Amino acid sequence: MKQFAKRVLALGVSSALSIGMAASVHAATYKVVDKGAVGELKYTYAQHQNHNGEMAISGAKSYNLPVQFDYLDEQNFQDIEEYANAYHERTHGLEDIEDYDAMVAGNPTANDLAWVVRWLQDTSRGAGSRSNELVYEYQRIIDFVAMTHLGKEGSQSEQFVIFDQVFEGTDQLTRSTVDIIAGITDSGVAYGSGTAPYLPMEPFTDSNGNIRNFWLREFGQRGFFSYDNGAQVLPVVPAETQYGGGLSAVIDVNENGSAVGFMSYKLNENTVEYIQDETGGCADPDILDDIPYEICVQNLQTNMYHMMAYKASLSPDGSVEVEQLGLLIEPHPDDERPHSSYATAVNNSGVAVGYASGWYDEEVTSPAVDQRSYGSYAVMYKDGEVFDFNQKNNRFLGRGVVISKANDINDKGIAVGYRYDDAVVKKLFYVDTTKPKEEMELITHPGFFTTSDTTAYAINESGLIVGDGEIESHNDSTSNPRRTAAFLYDSINGSFKNVNNLIGCDSPYTIIQARDINDENVISATAIIKVQRLDSKGQPMLDENGNPELEDVVRAVTLEPTDGEEESCEIEEDKVERQGASTSVFTVLSLFGLLALRRRIFN
C-alpha cells in the first residue's frame, strides 16, 4: 500500500486532518520508468526529455569523492576530529572519527571520509572558518553532476562532463564544478552550463613566511552546447569577461537552433574600484603580501557583473551570434547598481520569456539615481521589447527577491511560471502572450490548497502544465520542510491533479516534482524511492543485526501515459518520521530547488 506523507492535506486543511483512513477512486494513467541508479551517485534529478526519449539529468552526492589529503595539515585533521566530535550525535548515520591515524594517512574509513567531505564543504563551521583564513585555501568540493539518458532499450544514465578536469597524475575528476545539462533538442543539441574546476595554485609564501595553498578557477558559470553528446563541448563566452571570466548560461534551445539564457555584459564599477584600490583593495601591496591577486579577485565574484538576457544562433563549428534582449527598466545614467534580465525559455517562433529587475513603482518613467528596485518580475522578450504582463510591482518581499518568474512558453504563446500573491504565497500562473499587450494578465491557480507554494515549470502544446506544490501546511523550516508533490494541471478544463494519484496505488515511487512535459504527454519527474543504503564509498550498510539498512533517495524518472483503469485506493494518512534519511531527501530537493538548476547563477 502506498504510504502518503499526509497527502490528505492536498485536499484541504480542514476536516481531512482528522481522517485516519479515506477511500479514493482514480485512474492509474501513468507508468513510472526509472532512469536507473547511477553507480557513482546517490541522487538523480530530472530536467528535460525530448521527443526521442533522450533525457537531461542532474545528480549529486557522489561516492568516493576525491579528497586531496596531501593538502591537509595536522591542524586541519585536528579540526576535522573536533568537528566530528561536535556534530556526530546530531548527524544521521555517522559516528565519531573511527581511525584518526588512517585518516591522516589518506586512507580513511567510509565514516571518516564522510566527515572530511562535510568539513571541506562547510565553509561556516569547517574549512576556512578559522580567523585569517579564506575558503579558497582549501579544496573545493561542490559535486553537482550532469548526465544524459539516451532513452534506448537497455541504455543507462551516463555522466556528461562539461568543464571539469582530472587532478594531475590521476584519473579523478575534481568534483569542484556545478555541471548542468538543461536539455537536449529533438535534433540532438545538448545545452546547459558549467563552472570551471578549482585547481591548486603554486604554493604561496605570505608576509610571515608561511607557505599557503590556494585553489583557483578560471571562470564561474559558463554556457555550453554540444552536437555530439559531449564529445566536443562548445562554450558560450559572455560579453564581459574581465576579472574572473564572466558568467553565462544556455537555459533553452528551440528546434530552430535559437538559444536563450543570460550573460555578463557589464562590470560592477564599485567592485572594480575596490580591485584597483591600492589602499585596502586588491592592488594594495600589503594585501598582496598575504594572498595572490587572483584570489583577491575571485573572492569578489558575487558582485562583479551585471547580467542581461540574450538570444543566440548556434553553429556546429562553435560560432555564436548573440543578440542582447535588453532590460525591463532604463536606469538613471549614474545608477551603478546591477539591474539585470534573464531569459529562461524560447518557443519555435522566437518568443522568449524569463524575468528581469523592475522598479518598485511600475509607473516610473524618469528614474532617480537611487530609484527603489527590490525585486525581479516575469517578462516576455518579443519584437525588441521587454514586457512585464501588466504586473503591479509595489510588493516588498525582501531585496533581490524574484517576485514572479516565467519558466516556459509553448508554440501557442502560453507562458507559465510562478508569482507571489498578496499573502506572499508562491502560485503558478499562465498567460497568453498572443493577446494585445493591454489585455495580458497572469492567471493564477491556488494549487493543492490556499497556502501551498506552487510552481509551474513547463507547458506542452495541449495546455497541460506540470510543476510541484506543497502538500503540508505547517510552518516551513530547514529542519522541517514542507513536503511537495508533482502536479498535472489542464489549463483548458481546469483539472488539477496530484501526479501520485495517477501512477497506481501500489507504486513504490512518490513523485515530488514534475519538471517537463512533451507533446506526447510524457512527463520528466523526480521521485522518492527506498533503496539499500550505501556509505560514502558506495558500499552497502548493515544494521546492528546484520540486515541491510534502507534509505530514501531522489531518482530521475519518466512518466509514460497509459490507458489505465479506475482503481479503488485506500489512502492512509501516515506521517513519515521526520528524522534521518526521510528528512534528508526533502533537504536535497530543497537544495536543488534553491539552485534552480536551469535558472540560477553560480558565482
Main attributes of the structure:
603 residues; mainly beta; 5-stranded mixed β-sheet; 4-stranded antiparallel β-sheet; disordered N terminus; disordered C terminus
End-to-end CA span: 45 Å
Q: Major sheet: size, sense and barrel closure? A: 5 strands, mixed
Q: Point out poorly predicted stretches.
A: 1-27, 571-583, 593-602
Q: Gyration radius, to the nearest Å? A: 25 Å
Total helices: the number is: 7
Total E-strand runs: 36
Mean pLDDT: 87
Protein architecture, described:
With 603 residues, this protein is mainly beta. It has a domain at 69-138. 11% of the residues lie in helices and 35% in strands. It contains 7 helices and 36 strands. The strands form 10 sheets. Strands 20, 21, 22, 23 and 24 form a 5-stranded mixed beta sheet that branches. The chain has a 4-stranded antiparallel beta sheet with strand order 3-35-34-33. The protein is globular, with a radius of gyration of 25 Å. The relative contact order is 0.15. Keywords: Signal. Residues 1-27 form the signal peptide. InterPro entries: DUF3466. This is DUF3466 family protein.
